[in-house]
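Quick log. Single chain, no ligands specified.
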Amino acid sequence: AFKADIHGITGLLAIILMLVHALWATVVLVRKQENMIIKFHKFSIIVWLIWLIPFGTGVVLNAF
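-> predicted structure:
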């Protein structure tokens, strides 16, 4: 079940971003434009860093 704490909110944001990431990856692969590929890689790093927040909070919250 969804909990409206820092882990739940950032986790939901991360899942939404991963969906956007997957859709954009599909577009980038189909179009094969160099500038889109470069922007995609930058966006991927941002999505990954945001994904680390709920991952880390899950570890911390479940450790205590």
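The radius of gyration is 15 Å.
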